[in-house]
TrEMBL record:
Domain Ig-like residue range list: 1-54, 64-148
Upper taxonomic lineage: Eukaryota, Metazoa, Chordata, Craniata, Vertebrata
Organism whose genome encodes this protein: Trogon melanurus
Keywords, comma-separated and alphabetical: Disulfide bond, Glycoprotein, Immunoglobulin domain, Membrane, Repeat, Signal
Protein name: CNTN4 protein
Entries under PANTHER family matching the protein: CONTACTIN-4, CTX-RELATED TYPE I TRANSMEMBRANE PROTEIN
Gene Ontology cellular-component terms listed: membrane; neuron projection
One Pfam entry name: Ig_3
Compartment(s): Membrane
Coiled-coil stretches noted in the UniProt entry, renumbered to this chain: none
Length: 201
């Protein structure tokens, strides 16, 4: 006789309530398929002469989708800059980086790890447009950001050159000079109009 057909999940979980069973055609329809719907399903055909089971694995796949993008950054020469991008997807996306459209490889000052990029001791040559690329077998997405590298001339506005009075003959005096500057400046000292030169004192 014509068998009756039923459906079940082999892992013991319940078939989602949203699923629709079409008994006449032996069809199981699952609308809006999600990760929790994935698993091993069984179709059971049965009549008075016996029973047979067919199994099928349903797997959830999703193209990458951004969770965290990168944004434009400004860095002074010799500073460090870090970016991180993260994407969801099934299977888990892999990441790669581009600079001005060309592949960016880890080397020296440039460190890449999954979705993170760190550039230490930034130079003017590091300026440009960067892209984080996330991809799996179902899709590829791009996030772009520009790195601007700025140079700053020496600024003494936040540096205090202290006026020190020597109390004890033969004592030691230390005067610190730390202006804000990028790239790092060279230093010279004057006493009055005369350039100070290093000697035993």
């Amino acid at each position: 006789p014509v068998p009756t057909i039923s459906w079940r999940r082999a892992d013991g979980k319940q078939i989602p309530r949203k699923a629709r069973r079409h008994r006449s055609s032996g069809l199981l329809e699952i609308p809006n398929f999600q990760q929790e719907d994935a698993g091993l399903y069984e179709c059971v055909a049965e009549n008075v002469r016996g029973k047979n089971v067919a199994r099928g694995q349903l797997t959830f796949y999703a193209q990458p989708n951004w969770i965290q993008k990168i944004s434009d950054a400004h860095a002074a020469i010799e500073e460090s800059v870090s970016w991180e991008c993260r994407a969801s997807g099934r299977p888990k996306p892999s990441y790669r980086w581009l600079k001005d459209g060309e592949p960016l490889l880890p080397q020296g000052r440039v460190q890449l790890e999954q979705g993170s990029l760190t550039i230490t001791n930034v130079s003017l040559s590091d300026a440009g447009m960067y892209q984080c690329v996330a991809e799996n077998r179902h899709g590829i997405i791009f996030a772009s950001a520009e790195l601007s590298v700025i140079a700053v001339g020496p600024d003494f506005s936040k540096t205090l050159l202290k006026k020190l009075t020597l109390v004890k003959v033969g004592g030691e005096v230390i005067i610190e000079c730390k202006p804000k500057a990028s790239p790092r400046p060279t230093y010279s000292w004057k006493k009055g109009k005369d350039i100070l030169r290093e000697n035993e004192r």
